[in-house]
């Protein structure tokens, strides 16, 4: 009996040891699965490739439910796991996704993808933005690029004046960048063609070509909507942007732009010089608080005191307000205007009225 008790006791130890080993193995497996699951879920909640820039076309058909949308996103390689995207979306109580054609990247977060599907637009947080105000020349824009990117002002100017780059842009935007910009009297070929706006970039180091072409593309998008009016007026894009740039530099308010536009049109109609000071400053190549009489004598194609008609090209980038004013001027008989010390413009039909305004508001 004692022998049997010893044997049972020995067997008990073996069983307990086996149970312990099995339990340890089970716990180890559960732990591995848990940790692996945690890291898998964590990776599925993050962008597939934060540095990715390749655009992926994604089509969401009409009537697509969440299951279908999640599957489409996984199939197209935008997300890692459709199930986790579905659970995440339900957890955040997001609904009302819109059908349509999207261009996404693997750098987008789940929140950015969800926001895109809700608004019908591709939404991403930009790495950085660059704001180009209205009324700037290429040289002034170059300084903004230097402050906001890794490129110098000199590198920017070298690129916007590079003949091969200009030819490439002309090929990409043939209806915007026409042969008119190749006039030998134009100082900078692309002057006035970089639209003033805030630009978002989604990679840390976009090329100069990408930065500049993005601004040209925006100009193209803006001008497209005015093509019917341009055809009706028999006005070229180059003439429009040149005219609008004069308004951008002269005007202080929207109504001023439209009225100043009428003055310029009235002068052009009778072949009278536009006599606008900003063109003289552009001809001189430097900014001055006040244009002197001797400055008006500078021999330069941009000097509208010495030459009739529009200058060879834009003298700055014009915003939408100036573009619209150039196309829709006020109907007036004004031939003269001046700005007082407060920046208010005063208009006159005759030179005598203009001199009275000079006496009253300037001297």
How would you characterize this protein structure?
With 363 residues, this protein is mostly helical. It has 3 domains: 56-119, 2-Layer Sandwich (Dna Ligase, domain 1); 128-224, no CATH class; 237-361, no CATH class. Helices cover 50% and strands 7% of the residues. It is built from 14 helices and 6 strands. It has helices at 2-44, 66-75, 82-91, 110-119, 138-148, 153-160, 163-172, 208-224, 227-233, 237-250, 254-269, 277-284, 320-327, 351-361; strands at 56-60, 100-104, 128-131, 198-201, 336-339, 345-348. The strands form 3 sheets. It has a two-stranded antiparallel sheet. The protein has a two-stranded antiparallel ribbon with strand order 3-4. Strand 5 (336-339) and strand 6 form a beta hairpin. Helix 10 crosses helix 13. The protein is elongated, with a radius of gyration of 33 Å. 26% of the residues are buried. The mean pLDDT is 87. Functions as a peptidoglycan terminase that cleaves nascent peptidoglycan strands endolytically to terminate their elongation. Belongs to the transglycosylase MltG family. InterPro entries: MLTG-like. This is Endolytic murein transglycosylase. One of its GO terms (biological process) is peptidoglycan biosynthetic process.
What does the secondary structure layout of this molecule look like, with pairings?
Elements: H1 2-44, E1 56-60, H2 66-75, H3 82-91, E2 100-104, H4 110-119, E3 128-131, H5 138-148, H6 153-160, H7 163-172, E4 198-201, H8 208-224, H9 227-233, H10 237-250, H11 254-269, H12 277-284, H13 320-327, E5 336-339, E6 345-348, H14 351-361
Antiparallel strand pairs: 1-2, 3-4, 5-6
């Amino acid at each position: 009996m004692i022998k049997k008790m010893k044997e049972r006791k020995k067997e008990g130890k073996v069983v307990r040891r086996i149970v312990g080993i099995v339990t340890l193995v089970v716990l180890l497996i559960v732990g591995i699965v848990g940790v692996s699951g945690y890291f898998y879920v964590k990776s599925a909640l993050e962008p597939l490739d934060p540095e990715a820039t390749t655009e992926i076309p994604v089509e969401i058909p009409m009537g697509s439910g969440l299951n279908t949308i999640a599957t489409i996103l996984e199939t197209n390689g935008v997300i890692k796991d459709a199930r986790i995207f579905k659970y995440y979306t339900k957890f955040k109580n997001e609904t009302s996704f819109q059908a349509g054609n999207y261009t996404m990247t693997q750098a987008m977060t789940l929140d950015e993808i969800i926001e895109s599907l809700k608004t019908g637009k591709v939404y991403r947080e930009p790495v950085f933005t660059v704001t180009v105000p209205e009324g700037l020349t290429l040289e002034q824009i170059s300084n903004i690029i230097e402050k906001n990117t890794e490129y110098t002002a000199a590198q920017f100017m070298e690129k916007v004046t590079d003949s091969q780059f200009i030819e490439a842009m002309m090929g990409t935007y043939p209806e915007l960048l026409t042969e008119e910009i190749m006039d030998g009297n134009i100082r900078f070929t692309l002057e006035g063609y970089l639209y003033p706006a805030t630009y978002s970039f989604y990679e840390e180091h976009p090329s100069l070509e990408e930065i500049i072409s993005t601004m040209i593309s925006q100009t193209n998008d803006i001008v497209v909507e005015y093509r019917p009016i341009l055809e009706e007026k028999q006005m070229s894009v180059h003439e429009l942007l040149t005219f609008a740039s004069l308004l951008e530099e002269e005007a202080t308010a929207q109504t001023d732009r439209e009225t100043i536009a009428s003055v310029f049109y009235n002068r052009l109609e009778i072949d009278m010089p536009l006599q606008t000071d900003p063109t003289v400053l552009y001809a001189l190549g430097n900014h001055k608080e006040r244009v002197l009489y001797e400055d008006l004598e500078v021999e330069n194609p941009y000097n509208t005191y010495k030459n009739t008609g529009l200058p060879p090209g834009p003298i700055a980038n014009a915003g939408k307000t100036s573009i619209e004013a150039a196309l829709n001027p006020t109907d007036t008989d004004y031939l003269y205007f001046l700005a007082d010390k407060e920046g208010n413009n005063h208009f006159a039909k005759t030179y005598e009225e203009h001199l009275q305004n000079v006496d009253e508001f300037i001297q």
